[in-house]
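Summary for the funding panel

The consortium committed to producing paired sequence-structure records for every protein in the target list. Below we show the first two records in order, beginning with the earlier of the two.
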Amino acid sequence: MMARSGLKTGFAIAVAALGLLAAVTAQAARTETFANGIRATVHDASEVSAMCVGKADGSREFSHPLAGTVALDAATRTLYPFDVTFVTNALADMTGFSTDVEVEVFILDGIPTGIGSSFARRGAIFLSPSYAPVDAAITSYITTHEMGHVLTWAFIDGQPGRWDAPRPARAGPRRRRPRSLPCLPRPREPWPRTCATCSAACWLPAASAWKTTR
């Protein structure tokens, strides 16, 4: 009887260990290097959720050594995180440049506190969930937009001269833009100053600019 009991106990421990291993595997980040030179480590919603620490008001917070701390609002309705496959495909499909940059991508399962949308930091992208399923086209638009900020921080902000590199191909002199004007009415010319409206350098309008800056 004792032998059988020991066998059952050992079997139960093995099953529990396998279950734990499966859970860890499901939450493991995936790292891929694409033909364009982007090396992305993608953390899916379940992994990010596991990183979170809950608070009394229902909000949560997680920290990552490379990306810093992010607070998430308490959920008030069903949210739909981005699809991992759509995100990786979007990064892989970025063309017109060849680079060498690493980025941490966090697929959030909660809306970022005080931001309310997807955003980027130096070397990191945070994709905010939606109130409806996010299709491949919208995923691609948002992911590549945020990746554009990462590329800017990596290769342009520290080298102001690169803001002028696309200008010859676009023709015409660079025109000064009053800081009081909102982003959209301004001439679409790269300008290495902080925009008064969006508090960030206005983004280059086309990926073709990267052909001359990289």
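The next record, for a separate protein in the list, is shown here:
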Amino acid sequence: MPFSQVSFDFSTVERQEEETDSPSFPVLPLAQSEGVTTVYRKELVECKVTTAEKDLQQKVGLPALSQWKATDPQGNTKFFQWLTDTEAEAKKVKLQVKGSHISTLVRAPIGLDEEALREYLVSCNIDIAKFGHDGTKSLKEFSSELIKGETRLLQVASGEILVITEVVMLILHNPATKETLVQTAQVWPDGKTSHQARIPGAKRRPDENQFLCARRILKRQLEIDENA
């Protein structure tokens, strides 16, 4: 079914982490009763089928609420059934997040040195001559971000290369004056100045969760004692 025929409510996304033995991994030899403990990060998004076209509705078992199936491009066929909340709970299907918490898990850093990055970008038909000019980062700076984990590279199915960066923004608000701290300018080591107004922030490294990154913003950027 086309995405245009379904409405998604992203204003009420529920997020959770579930720790359990993964069925994708074998049981460990030294612990025959236990498998590989895996933490699953899940996001529950409520959506509604909005199409009025009968043929599209029937493809997903509507309006009869009958069982239906779908086959993905890899050839996997999955079967689906519409259930009431009570029926879903009886089958132990989790429809809501209970007791969720903010994750402190972090990713291991995987980066490329400058030469390896150069070879990789050239192999992807990216013009490396444009790096380090007109305010852009140099290959050395880009490599440094990759090695520290502040930036990651992702190649999608189409072959396109995406640069993934997670930025933590720190909002400092004075309730007495109703004012919020804003960065109004920045001077780079080479003397260049940026006057873009923005909330203080930093790129989250793989050895940090969002709290540690916020602490780094306080100590290194703002030079504020975190206990003040």
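Regarding this second record: Residues 114-165 form one domain. The mean pLDDT is 81.
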